[in-house]
């Protein structure tokens, strides 16, 4: 009988450790060659670990959430010969008991013995029917308007307990009942009830997000600038393009915004940059590798649109859809999740009036479009209906001054409000 120690391989340049985010085997289970052992998360991606041999798992390195150094033993697998139970010092029994709480041991004799046959007992004589009892007063036996009845129903109040001042129960009578009863004897429909505390271990993507956001706020002096933009003409153009798109993807606001961002970057290169804290060097990038904040079941992920400046709105729409799907299904490649130079984050219709997004370190800026709303605006002496959108930008004040951020957003505003310029050479 031989034991094989599977050591965590080098899964990325500069990676010193990885976090266990999921085990796919348990101690005592048999695993086949190439079967999945665990999911390990690094700073860049989640990597699936596969077993190089077949055998029985006798040791696992840790629990979900633990950090495992590269090169250390992740699992020990017993190979060759018949499958046997793991050694006595392996806590298999504890895991089994934990999975079946309250289970008791049953002896072989108890299992083999036939179950006793129950002797039927004579059926008891039917009980006499209870004497009729007068039904208590309820909301069907009192006078009240439909509105009062509906409110009482929502509050869980029996109108038969409410004292009326006049010939019928009114809202004031219901208010008095609620006030003087101290809320006893009823509870509001849908009201919050106390629940048991639920401790949730912060692991995987959630922990990476927490670490990155905390590091960003500690290291970067943020400031946020917000500007309102009239997107009426742009929305009209978008509707026309979508109506005649044929087999091309449907356009959202985001591809147009990305085109505007890329067109204005050459005038404001400090926006599309990275800051090296340790080296004290700011690198202004010529290409725009645009990070796209994407909500997934695992948490917020930021796939990167490479060379966004070279793509038109249709190509951007296709890439946005592809990368978002890859991120949500966990199929995004490492190179698609790294190397961003500037990030856009959008909550779509939930965008709110304004946002103060957190910079995706080591980048120096992040742009957040907010939701589009319709409001009347003055156009000379006339008033017209307009579609308005606020746009936020958060910047690293060590690299970007307030004047630069405001000037950049004003350049964006000009393109967004005159969308024909987005397609002009």
Instruction: Give the topology string: H per helix, E per strand.
Output: EEEEEEEEHHHHHEHHEEEEEEHEEEH
Query: Can you tell me the overall shape?
Result: flat
Helix content: 10-25%
- Cα distance spanning the termini: 73 Å
Task: Summarize the structure in words.
It is a single chain. By secondary structure, the chain is an alpha+beta fold. 25% of the residues lie in helices and 24% in strands. It is built from 9 helices and 18 strands. It has helices spanning 92-99, 108-112, 146-155, 171-180, 204-219, 232-243, 253-264, 313-328, 402-417; strands at residues 2-7, 17-23, 30-31, 36-41, 46-50, 55-60, 67-69, 73-79, 222-230, 273-276, 281-284, 290-292, 294-296, 299-301, 304-305, 342-344, 365-379, 382-396. The protein has a 6-stranded mixed sheet with strand order 9-18-17-16-12-15, with helices on one face. Strands 1-8-6-3 form a 4-stranded antiparallel sheet, with no helix packed on it. The protein has a 4-stranded antiparallel sheet with strand order 5-4-2-7, with no helix packed on it. Helix 7 (253-264) packs across helix 8 (313-328) and helix 7 (253-264) crosses helix 9 (402-417). It is flat, with a radius of gyration of 33 Å. The chain starts with a strand and ends in an 8-residue tail after the last helix. Mean pLDDT is 82; it is low at 82-119 and 129-140.
């Amino acid at each position: 009988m031989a034991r094989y120690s599977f050591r965590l391989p080098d899964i990325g340049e500069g990676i010193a450790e990885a976090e266990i985010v999921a085990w796919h085997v348990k101690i005592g289970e048999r695993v086949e060659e190439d079967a999945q052992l665990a999911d390990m998360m690094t700073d860049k991606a989640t990597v699936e670990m596969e077993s190089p041999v077949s055998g029985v798992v006798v040791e696992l390195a840790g629990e979900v959430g633990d950090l495992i150094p590269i090169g250390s033993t992740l699992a020990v697998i017993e190979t060759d010969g018949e499958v046997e139970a793991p050694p006595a010092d392996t806590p298999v029994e504890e895991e089994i008991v934990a999975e079946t709480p309250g289970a008791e041991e049953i002896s072989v004799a108890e299992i083999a013995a036939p179950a006793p046959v129950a002797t039927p007992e004579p059926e008891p004589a039917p009980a006499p029917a209870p004497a009729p009892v007068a039904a208590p007063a309820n909301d069907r036996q009192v006078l009240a308007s439909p509105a009062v009845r509906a409110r009482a129903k929502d509050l869980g109040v029996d109108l038969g307990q409410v004292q009326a001042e006049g010939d019928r129960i009114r809202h004031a009578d219901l208010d008095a009942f609620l006030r003087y009863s101290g809320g006893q004897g009823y509870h509001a429909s849908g009201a919050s009830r106390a629940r048991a505390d639920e401790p949730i271990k912060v692991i995987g993507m959630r922990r990476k997000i927490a670490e990155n956001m905390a590091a960003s706020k500690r290291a970067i002096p943020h400031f946020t600038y917000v500007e309102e933009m009239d997107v009426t003409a742009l929305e009209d153009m978008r509707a026309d393009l979508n109506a005649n798109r044929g087999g091309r993807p449907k356009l959202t606001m985001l591809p147009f915004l990305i085109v505007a961002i890329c067109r204005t970057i050459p005038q404001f290169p400090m926006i599309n940059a990275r800051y090296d804290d340790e080296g004290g060097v700011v690198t202004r990038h010529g290409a725009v590798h645009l990070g796209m904040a994407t909500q997934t079941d695992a948490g917020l992920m930021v796939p990167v649109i490479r060379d966004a400046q070279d793509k038109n709105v249709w190509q951007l729409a296709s890439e946005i859809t592809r990368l978002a799907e890859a991120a949500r299904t966990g199929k995004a490649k490492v190179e698609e999740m790294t190397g961003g130079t500037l990030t856009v984050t959008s909550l779509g219709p939930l965008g709110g009036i304004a946002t103060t997004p957190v910079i995706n370190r080591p980048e120096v800026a992040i742009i957040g479009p907010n939701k589009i709303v319709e409001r009347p605006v003055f156009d000379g002496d006339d008033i017209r209906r307009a579609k308005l959108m606020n746009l936020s930008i958060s910047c690293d004040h060590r690299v970007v001054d307030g004047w630069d951020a405001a000037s950049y957003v004003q350049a964006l505003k000009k393109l967004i409000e005159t969308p024909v310029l987005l397609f002009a050479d």
